[in-house]
């Protein structure tokens, strides 16, 4: 009996903390972006508090803010609570301060972890009741249960990596040779492309799209590396590649090491020395990477705000890639509409953070039926209104990769590296195309104009 009373009291205490957090949010609604990425609905043990928090999160994801009026109407219209007026009154009448937010979150997550351990304990009890299990199998299953319970966490820092690289002054001179008094945009480091688009403008959303294996992620990493060499703070939200893979690409490109040899550990002593030097150079790159999969736009927003605060500023953001972003639940049955909503929210985020965002996207395979397989705006997969919302759209096209015959012909002509960078849309500049070369050995893109300029620089 005493155990039951203790359990009942504990449930009430848990609910008190959870409703206190909701109260803080409704009294200080701007605090929602501080916790959207670190506190999930599953952390709530009280079902009513969980439902209300879920409503607030969806409001934030949709509107970039929360509203107690909209919460009240939702509670009332869907009969979520017995007396919505009294609920809202209780949540907004107490005295709370913003300083109570962090300790309240800590208590809620601690209670959630305790609850997971209690459930794990019950599972182990049931496991022990199975006489057919031998000792080793019982231990293995019990360890797995405990491991799952103690490692279920949404802590942001678990998926955050920071790396800074020393500024390479010898390259900066020719990448920014032409000084202009007005903001010409963030230079990509590819001279041909920069001469056409004038760089990426602050607050603009730029979509880089291509079919599979055209090198769109490599292209974005190339741009990031070029920007980082100018000591410009950069953030990468990677929903597919791990942070280590991204850094490996940069090492391969900078050290001029065969990608296969590097990944297989087959490099020679001379190459190892180059890798060692590049590792020493790269540690000062002002780069933050998130490699957690399955993020929604609200979590991406919260993460980028944290990055900007940590690095004092952001010059470039890369999101890789659109089709891996978790769809808004209310639009999950209409993919095109959901994708369009995500793109709109990311464009608004670019404006809010005053930073250019590069969003990588797949395109549909509709181009395969055309004689001219160069991608066009209508090829954007599940496009919805991507081409209307985005400030710029850039396609990558490598003809040698469209068919075996095209590859064979390109190899015979020596054009297998040719990559057409098609600027299909640009809100504030020209459209057109430029040619880059894809170096498969070093997994990187090369601008012939950059190479020509480098050859003009005298050796020291």
Quick structural overview:
By secondary structure, this protein is of the alpha/beta class.
Give the tags.
460 residues, alpha/beta, DNAb Helicase, Chain A, Rossmann fold, 18 helices, 10 strands, 50% helix, globular, disordered N terminus
Structure characterization notes:
With 460 residues, this protein is α/β, with parallel strands linked by helices. It has 2 domains: 2-153, DNAb Helicase, Chain A; 158-456, P-loop containing nucleotide triphosphate hydrolases (Rossmann fold, 3-Layer(aba) Sandwich), CATH 3.40.50. The N and C termini lie far apart (85 Å). Strand 9 and strand 10 form a beta hairpin. It has helices spanning 2-27, 32-35, 47-63, 68-77, 84-93, 101-128, 135-151, 169-175, 191-197, 216-228, 243-255, 259-264, 269-282, 297-311, 335-353, 386-389, 404-413, 448-456; strands spanning 160-163, 205-210, 234-238, 287-290, 316-320, 357-362, 392-397, 418-426, 432-439, 444-446. Residues 1-7, 153-159, 165-171 and 455-460 have low confidence and may be disordered. The longest helix has 28 residues, at 101-128. A 10-stranded mixed β-sheet has the order 1-4-3-5-6-2-7-8-9-10, sandwiched between helices.
């Amino acid at each position: 009996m005493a155990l039951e009373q203790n359990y009942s009291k504990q449930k009430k205490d848990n609910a008190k903390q959870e409703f206190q957090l909701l109260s803080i949010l409704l009294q200080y609604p701007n605090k929602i972006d501080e916790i959207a990425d670190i506190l999930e609905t599953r952390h709530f043990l009280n079902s009513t508090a969980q439902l209300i928090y879920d409503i607030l999160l969806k409001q934030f994801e949709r509107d970039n803010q929360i509203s107690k009026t909209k919460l009240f109407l939702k509670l009332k219209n869907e009969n979520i609570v017995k007396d919505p007026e009294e609920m809202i009154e209780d949540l907004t009448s107490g005295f709370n301060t913003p300083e109570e937010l962090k300790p309240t979150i800590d208590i809620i997550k601690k209670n959630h972890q305790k609850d997971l351990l209690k459930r794990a304990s019950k599972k182990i009890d049931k496991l022990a009741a199975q006489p057919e299990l031998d000792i080793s199998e019982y231990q293995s299953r019990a360890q797995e249960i405990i491991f799952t319970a103690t490692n279920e966490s949404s802590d942001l820092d678990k998926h955050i990596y920071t790396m800074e690289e020393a500024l390479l002054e010898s390259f900066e001179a020719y990448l920014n040779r032409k000084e202009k008094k007005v903001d010409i945009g963030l230079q990509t480091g590819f001279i041909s492309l920069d001469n056409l688009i004038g760089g990426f403008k602050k607050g603009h959303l730029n979509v880089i799209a291509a079919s599979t294996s055209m090198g769109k992620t490599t292209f974005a990493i190339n741009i990031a590396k070029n920007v980082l060499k100018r000591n410009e703070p950069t953030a990468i939200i990677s929903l597919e590649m791990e942070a280590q893979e991204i850094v490996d690409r940069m090492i391969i490109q900078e050290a001029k090491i065969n990608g296969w040899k590097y990944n297989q550990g087959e490099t020679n002593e001379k190459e190892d020395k180059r890798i060692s030097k590049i590792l020493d150079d790269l540690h000062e790159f002002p780069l933050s990477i998130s490699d957690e999969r399955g993020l929604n736009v609200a979590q991406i927003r919260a993460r980028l705000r944290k990055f900007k605060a940590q690095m004092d500023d952001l010059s470039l953001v890369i999101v890789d890639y659109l089709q891996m972003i978790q769809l808004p639940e209310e639009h999950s049955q209409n993919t095109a509409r959901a994708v369009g909503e995500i793109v709109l929210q990311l464009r608004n985020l670019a404006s809010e953070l005053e930073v250019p965002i590069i969003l990588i996207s797949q395109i549909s395979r509709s181009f395969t039926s055309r004689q001219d397989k160069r991608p066009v705006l209508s090829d954007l997969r599940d496009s919805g209104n991507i081409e209307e919302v985005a400030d710029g759209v850039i396609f990558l096209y490598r003809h040698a990769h469209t068919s075996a015959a095209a590859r064979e012909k390109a190899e015979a002509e020596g054009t297998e590296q040719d990559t057409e960078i098609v600027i299909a849309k640009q809100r504030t500049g020209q459209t057109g195309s430029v040619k880059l070369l894809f170096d498969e050995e070093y997994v990187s893109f090369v601008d012939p104009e950059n190479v020509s300029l480098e050859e003009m620089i005298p050796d020291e």
